[in-house]
Amino acid sequence: MKGNEKMIDMLNFLLADELTAISQYMVHSEMCDNWGYEKLHKAIEKRAIDEMKHAEKLIARILFLEGLPIVSNLNKMHIGPVVEKQHNNDKMAEEGAIKAYNEAIKLAVEVGDNGTRELLEAILKDEENHIDWIEAQLDQIGQMSIQNYLALQLSEG
Fold first, then answer.
1. Mean per-residue pLDDT of the chain
2. 3-state helix/strand/coil string of 57-100
3. Is the pTM value of this prediction over 0.85?
4. Helix, strand or coil for residue 156?
5. CATH class for the domain made up of 5-67+81-152
């Protein structure tokens, strides 16, 4: 099915965002693993895998719309040198994603592409869950101090 060119361009923009997030989150996950923060490592790795699934769905949709998925574009990554900065950088990435998905949903409605709109709405819900988790982590750091927070992220055993 031949899709709207503006919609395909928007999907490729979102794809670049997802591919960037995968890379950023995997680096953060591996840094946490290296520091021994096993719980954070697993949680951030899971978020990276969620983003991989989003990228896969966007690629499939672009192909369905007879577009060409552009997988070589990455945006600037913001790697945090410490856990709190990682959370803040990831929060910024999720805020950008939420804004972009809302804009893309608006475009899908304008061009009458309800299949794409439904896909984007489902991904948007995931992104909102991601930012909710990150905000909870930042709240915990604020309430219990970074040292106590990090002590809770160590593996048990």
1. 97
2. HHHHHHHHCCCCCCCCCCCCCCCCCCHHHHHHHHHHHHHHHHHH
3. yes
4. coil
5. mainly alpha
